[in-house]
Design goal:
By secondary structure, the protein is α+β, with helices and mostly antiparallel strands. It is 24% helix and 27% strand.
Length: 388
């Protein structure tokens, strides 16, 4: 008789302290994977709802011919970014496509770059700027003399529906770290989580918005973050200070921070977590193993140290005398690898780190969407850090 999926592959999570649970319909599958299907709560039929993309505002900064081409582009709703590089043909990139599409045969001139730069406004210390009242991001490439020689005009959209992938985890009131490569949708998810926690969960939410990507450019944050408050950061190097200031001055229950990338920011995250504040953060990296091996960010998952065992202990464990161990409890009890926009791998951080350091395969949850955009949660015991 085949073993029960629930008993064999139960994802070891504590029972959250809440009275309402998401609706789950269970289906019979092969014995090696337990499956749950969660009904989306945003749009009828389980689709996504784009609240606002303000695309016309972004097109206004482009040369006139490019603006006209994109207005008539049938895939305009899938536009990801427009690339303007000096002496090269302008290029549009779309969601789901690895390559780009040239928008004309002639190259971008210095005059066109200067006009686009004037329409955008001043760039910050991270060479990023925005368009006031929108979620768009304009990033500059500069020459050695400081002259702008390239612009990446990234479309920012307010989208409802992504939170369905983690709505059940939000009920645990524990911190969550999202990993993913650039462009996989981390900031979009942060924006929607901020709105849901502030408006639906009635939490005091503060966003530490380093480049104004989550709350948009300008002093008044975009409506997409709901009732969450936003603190702007004067310089990227000051992000860790603003994180601590948010906790000390504004008494948040939740702090949301995008692109954790320095040791000071990792230490600030630990300090905030130790004060009982829920953290929602992102970091670059595709796998948990990337964070374990990163000396700057490994503190987010508890840190790693070398331990020397005695002879008897080493024989009992059947291992070498020098082994790697986790130093402390993780700052983020949950870690989510955003492999694709609709394919996420969820870890219970403490258990996954310990098992990976001991050369074992941890239990994980694979969260994805089916053809009807409904969320499917599968539990697997074959994670090896490189794939499932």
């Amino acid at each position: 008789m085949a073993p029960s999926p629930a008993r064999l592959l139960l994802f070891l999570l504590p029972t959250p302290n809440h009275t309402t649970r998401p609706r789950v319909r269970r289906h019979r599958r092969a014995w090696w994977a337990g499956t749950a299907r969660c009904a989306p709560e945003v749009a009828a039929g389980g689709g996504f709802v784009v609240i606002e993309d303000d695309l016309a505002e972004l097109l206004q900064i482009l040369p006139t011919d490019l603006r006209d081409n994109l207005k008539n582009e049938p895939r305009r709703d899938q536009l990801l970014e427009v690339i303007l590089d000096l002496g090269r043909r302008p290029e549009a990139r779309f969601l789901g496509n690895s390559g780009g599409q040239y928008l004309r045969d002639s190259e971008i001139s210095q005059l066109e770059l200067e006009e686009a730069q004037k329409a955008v406004g001043e760039f910050g210390g991270d060479n990023r700027a925005g368009i006031e009242g929108t979620l768009h991001r304009i990033s500059a490439i500069r020459s050695r003399k400081g002259m702008v020689v390239g612009l990446t005009c990234r479309v920012g959209r307010a989208v409802n529906g992504h939170v369905d992938m983690v709505r059940d985890l939000l009920n645990y009131k524990e911190s969550i770290l999202f990993l993913g490569r650039p462009g996989v949708g981390k900031t979009t998810v942060m924006r929607e989580i901020a709105r849901v926690l502030a408006d639906e969960f009635q939490k005091r939410v503060v966003i530490v918005d380093t480049s104004n990507e989550i709350g948009g450019d300008g002093d008044i944050p975009h409506a997409a973050i709901g009732g969450a408050r936003r603190m702007q950061v004067p310089e990227p190097s000051m992000q860790h200070r603003v994180m601590i200031e948010a906790v000390e001055n504004h008494m948040p229950e939740v702090v949301i921070v995008d692109e954790i990338g320095t040791e000071a920011e990792a230490q600030a995250c630990r300090s905030i977590a130790e004060r009982g504040v829920m953290l929602i953060g992102t970091a670059h990296g595709e796998r948990l193993a990337n964070i374990i091996k990163n000396p700057v960010l490994s503190d987010l998952i508890g840190g790693v140290e070398t331990v020397t065992l005695g002879d008897e202990e080493a024989r009992a464990r059947r291992t070498q005398k020098s082994i790697l161990e986790r130093k402390a409890p993780p700052t983020f009890p949950f870690l989510i690898e955003m492999r694709e926009r609709h394919y996420w791998v969820t870890h219970r951080t403490e258990r996954s780190v310990d098992m990976l350091l001991h050369g074992k395969k941890p239990l994980v949850e694979v969260r994805k969407r089916d053809n009807e955009f409904q969320v499917i949660i599968e539990r697997w015991a074959t994670y090896d850090g490189d794939g499932l």
